[in-house]
Amino acid sequence: MSEFRKRMAASPEFARFAPFLIFCALTTAGGMLGGDWKFWLYGVKVLVGAWMVWEMRPFVTEMRWAISWEAVVVGVAIFVLWVGLNPYYPMNQLLFKDTKESIWNPFDRFGDGGLMAWVLIIVRLMGMTLVVPPLEEVFYRSLFYRYLIKYDFLKVPLGYFDGVALAIVAATFGFVHFEWLAGIICAVGYQWLVIRKGRLGDAMTAHAITNFLLGVYVVWKGGAAWKFF
Predict the structure, then answer these.
(1) Which of 31-45, 100-114, 126-140, 171-185 shows the lowest mean pLDDT across its residues?
(2) 210 pLDDT exceeds 80?
(3) What pLDDT is recorded for position 34?
(4) Whether the predicted pLDDT of 229 surpasses 90
(5) What are the boundaries of each domain within the chain?
(6) pLDDT computed for residue 1 by the predictor
(7) Is the distance from CB of 137 to CB of 204 less than 8 angstroms?
(8) What does the alpha-carbon distance between residue 66 and residue 19 come to, in Å, rounded to a whole number?
(9) How many CB atoms lie within 10 A of CB 72?
């Protein structure tokens, strides 16, 4: 057993927090280094993230995909709100740069229709659809939300409702997104799914649907839509 797996086996908190933290660190590194690093590090991040999700499986038992009509509705609705609300409120300029250099658009770097550009886009779509949802949902909806309710968070059922914890998690989720208002709505919607269903899988599915639709929308629309990637 690897040292990473041993740490996850020994600590439920580590198993749910460390993969998310590593993923965020790689995201931050790509943004800070700029240039082509934002493309290459995203590819590395997807591979590392996929490996971590695989390693987490035996120790994070709630990390199981589940499909329901509620998950589909929430996933599609949040995508519509994410795009539709965008022109009507100021973005989070405190944590994010709103410049051409900060936009992740491989067509600008590798040419329209270039093979490398399409490879990077496919990798990004796979990452945001299959890797980001389990990592973020495990951290925010399983660990953070329940930890705010009780230190021994595993004793808190996934379906337990706590208004204060919901507000804190939603505010935090919004704060770490450029589209902060959409992020808050997103967090409330996904947490509602977890509470309603008493499991994490529906929120993972809704998150995956939202992200996939955003990715397809960006590639289809181009132009200013690249800011959503």
Answers:
(1) 100-114
(2) yes
(3) 67
(4) no
(5) 64-228
(6) 65
(7) yes
(8) 21
(9) 14
Burial class (CB in 10 A: 0-12, 13-18, 19+), 224: exposed
Over the stretch 95-149, which tens digit does the pLDDT of each residue have?
777 655 667 788 887 777 778 889 999 999 999 999 999 999 999 999 999 999 9
The tokens for 67 are: 């499909």
Residue 136 is which amino acid?
Answer: E
DSSP sequence for 160-181: ---HHHHHHHHHHHHHTSSSHH
C-alpha closest to that of 53 among 135, 123, 129: 135
Number of H helices, E strands in the chain: 11, 0
Long-range contacts formed by 210-214: CB under 8 A, 24+ apart: 210/75, 210/76, 210/78, 210/79, 210/82, 210/186, 211/128, 211/129, 211/132, 211/133, 212/125, 212/128, 212/129, 213/75, 213/76, 213/79, 214/79, 214/82, 214/83, 214/128
Residue 63, sorted as left (phi over 0), alpha (psi -120 to 50) or beta, turns out to be: beta
Predicted confidence at residue 100, as pLDDT, reads 59
Q: Length of the chain, please?
A: 229
Average pLDDT, the chain: 91
Residue 111 DSSP code: -
| Beta carbons within 10 angstroms of residue 2's beta carbon | 8
Tokens encoding 46: 């997807």
Q: Rounded to two decimals, what is the model's pTM?
A: 0.93
What phi, psi does 136 have (nearest 5°)?
-75, -40
